[in-house]
Design goal:
Layout (H helix, E strand, L loop, with lengths): L1 H14 L6 E6 L2 E6 L4 E6 L4 E10 L2 E13 L5 E14 L3 E5 L5 H23 L10 H20 L3 E3 L4 E6 L1
Antiparallel strand pairs: 1-2, 1-9, 3-4, 3-7, 4-5, 5-6, 7-8
Helix pairs in contact: 2-3
C-alpha cells in the first residue's frame, strides 16, 4: 500500500503537465494577446508582407505555420467560390515578425459618421420641404454641426493604429 502511495506521488507531476506552449504579445510586460498552436495567426513581416496561417508549433525563436493557398473556382451557376489549391508548411523566425494586426471595433466611428451625415441630409430635406432656404443664415449652424460630427468620426477612424508594431513597446515571447 505504501508503495502505491509513493509511486502515485512520484508519477502524478509527470501526468499533470497540461500547459500548452503559447505565443504572447506583450506591452511593457503586460500580456495583450495570446496565440496557441492550432489557431489562426496573422502578422506582417519586417518587409511589410502579410502572412496568415495556422500556427502549428512554436520553438523559442521560431514559428511554424501551415499556409493555405486559396483560389477562386467557377461554379456551374456562373459564380465563384473559394477552394484550397495548396497547403504549405512555412517557418518564420521571430525576428522576421514586424507587426500584428489589432482587433478593431469601428462601431463608435461609424456611428459618428453615419449619424452626422444622416442628420445633415434629414435637415436639408426638411428645410426644402418647408420651403426654407437650405443654406440660409438660420440653418447653416445645423449643417456645420452635422458635417463636423461626421468629420470627427472620420478623423478618429484614420488616426487609430491598425497594428501593434514590434520593437520598444511591444514584443513577442514564447511561454511553455
Amino acid at each position: 500500500m505504501k508503495f502505491l502511495y509513493i509511486a502515485s506521488l512520484l508519477l502524478l507531476p509527470a501526468l499533470c503537465q497540461s500547459q500548452a506552449t503559447a505565443l504572447l504579445l506583450k506591452k511593457n510586460n503586460k500580456t495583450i494577446q495570446r496565440y496557441y498552436p492550432g489557431r489562426t495567426i496573422s502578422f506582417f513581416t519586417t518587409d511589410k508582407m502579410p502572412v496568415n496561417g495556422r500556427l502549428d508549433s512554436l520553438v523559442r525563436d521560431s514559428l511554424f505555420l501551415t499556409y493555405f493557398q486559396l483560389v477562386r473556382v467557377p461554379t456551374p451557376w456562373g459564380t465563384f467560390r473559394m477552394d484550397t489549391a495548396g497547403r504549405y508548411s512555412i517557418a518564420f523566425s521571430m525576428a522576421n515578425v514586424g507587426a500584428l494586426p489589432r482587433k478593431r471595433n469601428r462601431w463608435f466611428e461609424g456611428t459618428l459618421m453615419t449619424g452626422g451625415l444622416a442628420y445633415t441630409v434629414l435637415n436639408l430635406v426638411n428645410t426644402v420641404r418647408e420651403k426654407d432656404p437650405p443654406f440660409g443664415k438660420d440653418n447653416i449652424a445645423n449643417i456645420i454641426g452635422g458635417l463636423g460630427t461626421a468629420a470627427v468620426g472620420y478623423t478618429i477612424a484614420k488616426l487609430k493604429k491598425s497594428s501593434y508594431t514590434l520593437g520598444k513597446t511591444y514584443r513577442l515571447s514564447v511561454v511553455e
